[in-house]
Design brief:
The chain has 3 helices and no strands.
């Protein structure tokens, strides 16, 4: 039941992450990191029994492998993105 609630809540969380990231809000990057970590963990929990029965389950083109790789991409790329978003904005002035 808790995993079902989480997966349904992604219908709200995913668009919220997109809006915050597009608006260049650091909270969006942090939320994306948290959502992806939880999403990958939840998918591993749900898919663990079939994976134990058939390890090739991991190699399917749609399933754990792409979700896990995308999750790693989001987590690793969040550090430099947050660093850039946290820099003070430099306002350039045109000299007349």
């Amino acid at each position: 039941m808790p995993l079902q609630v989480f997966f349904v809540s992604l219908a709200v969380l995913d668009p919220l992450v997109v809006v915050l990231v597009v608006r260049a809000r650091p909270e969006g990057v942090r939320l994306a990191w948290g959502v992806m970590v939880l999403d990958v963990l939840a998918n591993w929990i749900v898919n663990w029994p079939p994976l134990q029965e058939d390890p090739t389950w991991l190699l399917r083109p749609v399933g754990l492998l792409p979700i896990t790789l995308f999750g790693l991409f989001v987590v690793v790329s969040s550090v430099p993105v947050l660093r850039v978003m946290s820099r003070p904005q430099v306002v350039s002035r045109r000299m007349a």
